[in-house]
Amino acid sequence: PSIVEHTNAQMEKHRRVRTSAGEILKFFGIRLVIALNPRKSNDGLQSYWACSTSAQQLCTPSIDNFQERFKMSFTRFKVISECLRLDAFDDQSICSDPYKPIDSFIAAFNDRRECVVTPGICIVPDECMSPWKGLESISPDPTRIHVTKIPRKPRGIGVEMKCSADGESCIMLRLEIQKGASAPLQQFQTAPDNIPFHCAVVLRLVLPWIGTGRLVVADAAFTSLRT
After folding, report:
1. Are 105 and 24 in contact (CB under 8 A)?
2. Rounded Cα–Cα distance for residues 119 and 117 (Å)
3. Helix ranges (DSSP H) in 97-145
4. Is 44 left (phi over 0), alpha (psi -120 to 50) or beta?
5. What is the β-pairing status of strands 215-216 and 157-166?
6. Over its length of 227 residues, how does the chain's per-residue pLDDT go in tens digits?
């Protein structure tokens, strides 16, 4: 509901037709189909809305003609893309906190997974990346979020997140954005103040299941003696 509310505020600001929860879900579904079926085309995203005409395309399944498949025009898709908001923010709030547009969404994701996912016996903390695919040389900008560079990763430039997942189903359970050394350190609420950061990260990633008898399986980055 909050995504619809904040997106509609942008819609009204730009004099666009308001959206709904159903349309937002449809928008995310289209985004998922595009992510699972990437293509290189001079038309970019608009190529997914083109109609198949060749004999080969008619005989085999193709990912196109989205207006007919999903009942959403390319123009409407672009409007939602431009107005989509996960939280309320302005230029001033972003300058003081570049993560303002996404923090509440991450918190809601974690709360939702805690409610609807029951993990198996193993919980696996690890790290993951939301890769940056733009130009590597970026001019300094105080509103830009922290970008991590990890050479050993296949896509090692982007926003790093610590995460935990169910070891059996591989479903992601919790996420935590790594905001860089300049961001205030998050503290584990039920632990002493002097607990090391790397240990507190592991505790936060398994917090809802502490005391349930589950096994935490992690690599050396998460399994210090103190942890």
Report:
1. no
2. 6
3. 100-116
4. left
5. unpaired
6. 789 999 999 999 999 999 999 999 999 999 999 988 888 777 788 889 988 655 444 444 567 889 989 999 999 999 999 999 998 887 777 777 888 888 889 999 999 999 999 999 999 999 888 887 766 555 445 556 777 777 777 777 788 899 999 999 999 999 999 887 666 555 445 455 678 888 888 999 999 999 999 999 999 888 888 88
Residues 6+ apart with CB under 8 A from 34: 45, 48
pLDDT of residue 50: 87
Distance CA 101, CA 87 (A): 5
Measured distance CA(17)–CA(36) in Å, rounded: 29
- Hey, what are 8's tokens? 């509609």
Q: What is the sign of the dihedral through the CA atoms of 33, 145, 82 and 156?
A: negative
Number of Cα atoms under 13 Å in the Cβ half of residue 215: 6
8 A C-beta contact, residue 166 and residue 123:
yes
User: Could you give phi then psi for residue 124, rounded to 5 degrees?
Assistant: -115, 105
**Residue 30 carries which side chain, given as an amino acid letter?**
I
**Would you call 160 exposed, middle or buried from its count of C-beta atoms within 10 A (0-12, 13-18, 19+)?**
buried
